[in-house]
Amino acid sequence: MTKVKICGLRTNADVVAVNEAKPELAGFVFAPSKRQITAKQALFLRQNMNEDIQTVGVFVNPTLEQVLPLLKSDIIQLVQLHGQQNQMLITKLQQAGAKVIQTIQTDAKLVTKPDYVMYDGRKPGSGNVIDWQRINQLEQPLFLAGGLTPANVVQAIAIVKPDFVDVSSGVETDGHKDATKIIQFTRRAHYARNEIRN
């Protein structure tokens, strides 16, 4: 079964929708973005979220000092890194008990050793679909992001066969998370392999 990450949660309504849909992961954006939230907001959302759903902190070129307090307070369990690849940071985060997701583009080489690799577009969260045919299978478990929606996620899984699919703008309506789309996306991704076989 392909696992699901719903990214860019900002409100308690978002958490209610995610609790109903039951994806494996939920993402909090701490990098500059229209979806950026504070540690205090993330703590509130985490406290209202189903314990079975792990949370991911999304960062662009962070310092260790920016990330560690969120890990130590259990606001997040995984760290998603955008920007320059930094093995020293990855190693220190792993030593602190975090699983690390390194985001790269389809034309980039992986030069670090994260726990997971995410293929995404040059402007994460923009809703632009990346070229699924250009994705390389690596040693690490693979996240597929970039323009996924309830309408195309089954096709994306059939072509790429990722371990995880990641969505943000694809489950929004007018810039806000849409509970119906979150549920549709999660269920279609979870049952995609069955749909492909039929």
Write the layout of secondary structure elements.
Layout (H helix, E strand, L loop, with lengths): L2 E5 L4 H10 L3 E5 L9 H9 L6 E7 L3 H9 L5 E5 L4 H9 L3 E6 L11 E4 L22 E3 L8 H8 L3 E4 L4 E2 L2 E2 L1 H12 L1 H6 L1
Parallel strand pairs: 1-2, 1-8, 2-3, 3-4, 4-5, 5-6, 6-7, 7-8
Antiparallel strand pairs: 9-10
Helix pairs in contact: 1-6
Task: Write up this protein.
It is a single chain. The chain has helices at residues 12-21, 39-47, 64-72, 87-95, 153-160, 179-190, 192-197, and strands at residues 3-7, 25-29, 54-60, 78-82, 99-104, 116-119, 142-144, 164-167, 172-173, 176-177. With 198 residues, it is α/β, with parallel strands linked by helices. It has a single domain, classed as TIM Barrel, CATH 3.20.20. An eight-stranded parallel beta barrel has the order 1-2-3-4-5-6-7-8, surrounded by four helices. Strands 9-10 form a two-stranded antiparallel ribbon. Strand 7, helix 5 and strand 8 (164-167) form a beta-alpha-beta unit. The longest helix has 12 residues, at 179-190. The radius of gyration is 16 Å and the shape is globular. Pathway: Amino-acid biosynthesis; L-tryptophan biosynthesis; L-tryptophan from chorismate: step 3/5. Keywords: Amino-acid biosynthesis, Aromatic amino acid biosynthesis, Isomerase, Tryptophan biosynthesis. InterPro entries: Aldolase_TIM, PRAI_dom, RibuloseP-bd_barrel, TrpF_fam. One of its GO terms (molecular function) is isomerase activity.
